[in-house]
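Field log, afternoon session.

UNIT: design team B
ACTIVITY: writing a sequence onto a fixed backbone
BACKBONE:
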């Protein structure tokens, strides 16, 4: 599966647009990470637990989008965009979406 943020793929021709595909997840961190994150805000710096949580959530959301594209018989997803928001304290939503296409 080819995944790109552009609306075309260099050297490839799109034969059919199959529609929008997406993947989403709401992920929370565990209490231990939350406590350590609170402590880190006192001294500054990267909150590694949050970074890992977001990275994992992005991977899961992307896999869900790819699975949806595969179910449509897509060869690629173009125009991919990511979004995130805080759903509640300690939990974040990650969404990824794009257009599933068939290539010639």
């Amino acid at each position: 599966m080819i995944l790109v943020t552009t609306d075309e793929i260099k050297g490839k021709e799109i034969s059919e647009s199959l529609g929008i595909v997406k993947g989403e997840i709401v992920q929370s961190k565990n209490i231990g990470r939350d406590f350590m994150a609170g402590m880190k805000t006192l001294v500054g710096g990267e909150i590694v637990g949050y970074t890992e949580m977001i990275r994992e959530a992005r991977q899961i959301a992307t896999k869900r989008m790819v699975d949806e594209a595969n179910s449509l018989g897509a060869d690629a997803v173009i125009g991919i965009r990511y979004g995130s928001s805080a759903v509640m304290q300690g939990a974040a939503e990650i969404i990824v979406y794009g257009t599933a296409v068939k290539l010639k």
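LOG NOTE: The chain has a mean pLDDT of 88.
NEXT ACTIVITY: expression trials, pending approval
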